[in-house]
Amino acid sequence: MDTTHSLRGYGGADAYLRNCPSRTVLDVLGSKWTVLIVPSLTSGPMRFGELRRRLDGITQKSLTQALRHLERDGLVTRTVYPTIPPRVDYALTPLGEEASALLESLRAWAEDHMTDILTARTAYESRPDPLPV
Amino acid sequence: MDTTHSLRGYGGADAYLRNCPSRTVLDVLGSKWTVLIVPSLTSGPMRFGELRRRLDGITQKSLTQALRHLERDGLVTRTVYPTIPPRVDYALTPLGEEASALLESLRAWAEDHMTDILTARTAYESRPDPLPV
To answer: Does B101 touch chain A if contact means CB atoms closer than 8 Å?
Structure first.
């Protein structure tokens, strides 16, 4: 795929092609942390610490990295207020707002089908023996 | 979160909680390869080699691993036909069929917004200097 061409119009994007940058968009979009962070911000800007509490168990490093990726990709803005100590807010951009509904559906699907999937995993792990090939 | 409880009903799932297994569902669902494999199978079963050609650039190892995760999670079935050489088909389960539309939307969103996101990345990387904090 010709990246220059794909930059000129949506028509050029095809995630099935190895060099299409839409694959790197999928990497960010499909990340578990993106799925949890972006919909959290639909109700308004949040501080780092608030996000960290909302995403139970996330490490400081993972949250920093996830937010940096979202900022780089134009889904989230980071605003520093010159207070002492400085206050840093994260908010959705219009693009982030647009992605939010889709990510919310993904999370809802995962939650709604968790039991089916855990049942499938148990069955898979208790199979009599591996199939050939 | 009490996993036993969550197995009994959908109501218990909450991906914002660190021990909720729905987070592991998100890991599989959000994977770039899942997003590309599952919708590919909506038109019917495919063989390993066909999938490998469809997902341009995927390594044999990555495809094997992705298909194993999808089989384990009950989204894909793997059928071995005792021919010489053996023929192995991959097909969607009803659960996989159900996930497919959502994953298709995710891919379409990534492709449709690729240009916006690449533009944001260029702007981010050419910022004058890093913000404090």
So the answer is: no
Give the pTM. 0.86
Angle at the Cα of A79 from the Cα atoms of A78 and A83, rounded to 5 degrees:
140
Q: Are A29 and B110 in contact (CB under 8 A)?
A: yes
Q: Which of A24, A78, A118 to mutate to test binding with chain B, by most B CBs within 10 Å of its CB? A: A118
For residue B125, give the nearest of A3, A71, A108 by alpha carbon.
Answer: A71
Q: What does the buried/exposed string (b/e) look like for B88-124 if buried means 16 or more CB atoms within 10 Å of the residue's CB?
A: bbbebbebbebbbebbebbbbbbbebbbbbbebbeee
CA atoms of B13 and B2, how far apart (whole Å): 10
Provide the H-helix boundaries in A41-113: 48-54, 60-72, 94-112
Q: List the 35-94 stretch of B: residues with Cβ below 8 A of A.
A: 35-36, 54-57, 71-74, 78, 80, 86, 88
Give the total residue count for chain A.
133
DSSP per position, B42-86: GGS-EEHHHHHHHSTT--HHHHHHHHHHHHHTTSEEEEEE-SSS-
Question: Does the beta-carbon distance from B74 to A117 stay under 8 Å?
Answer: yes
| Contact (Cβ atoms closer than 8 angstroms) between residue A109 and residue B99 | yes
Choose among A106, A43, A60: nearest CA to B15.
A106
ipTM here: 0.86
Contact between B89 and B78 under an 8 Å Cβ cutoff? The reply is yes
A100-104, B5-9, B11-15, B114-118: least confidently modelled range: B5-9
* Residue appearing with tokens 């980071």: A78
pLDDT tens for each residue of A91-122? 999 999 999 999 999 999 999 999 999 999 99
